[in-house]
Amino acid sequence: MVNVNPYHRMLEDKIMTATREELTLILYEGGIKFLNKAIMAVEKKEMTEAHALILRTQDVVREFQLTLDHQYPISQDLDALYDYMHRRLVDANIRKDLEILNEVLGMFREFRDTWKEAMKLAKAG
Questions:
Q1: Is the pTM higher than 0.85?
Q2: d(C-alpha 114, C-alpha 101), whole Å
Q3: Which residue, 118, 121, 123, 122, is CA-closest to 25?
């Protein structure tokens, strides 16, 4: 019998039942988690782990870019910001630069917080 990690099972259930808005929030939180772990890995000089975590963060950014609905004018601005974040992550990964990682982490947190507020406003009507 395969031993399933209860956390992974719970996350899988959360993702499978999430609305589009909740999935976006999950992605922002995932990016933040990967960046926090990447920062810790760089600080511990675990460069292979840092590399893998930064790549996962890049995947999150690319997912945001791929799922943008370009019928809205704000999409162009978001695409430019996501492109900037992706380029910064590539640079951070090459140099294992904590300053850049923290910059992108701040952007992720700002996006996440703004998204949470937008979700609250949408619920309020």
A1: yes
A2: 20
A3: 118
